[in-house]
Amino acid sequence: MSGAGGLYQELILEHGRKPRNFRRLEGATHRADGHNPLCGDRVTIFARVADGVVVEVAFQGQGCAISTASTSILTEAVRGKTVAEVEALFGRFHDLVTGKAEPSEDDGLGKLEAFGGVAEFPMRVKCATLAWHTLMAALAAKGEPVSTE
User: Which domains does the chain carry?
Assistant: First the structure.
């Protein structure tokens, strides 16, 4: 491994092995469950939102390294953002992993840029976006499980 690609791969592996905020969030104001039947990824997202700002996010579940790493980095990326900012960030992330956009310095993705290579593997897009779809359902208080199918 060398260069930025190697660093990104290491970041995904690190978050896949040791996910951040992997726990049940007591006092969560929002919650949703998500499932990717294709590869068996399952996630429950817990969020605490106050005055339209995501104060804290945590998750439980199991999945492949990409799904787990994406969820772990999501929990760090959305903290302190308004719901509108989270929605916009998801839009930029989705464009990145589906190959509709290239990473740029002003896209605000930060560590999420590590998932840019997912666009080369369309079957993995659902792994990378499951947690995001689940978080969006939680924030919208949809109340029903999210599925990538």
Answer: 3-147 (3.90.1010.10)
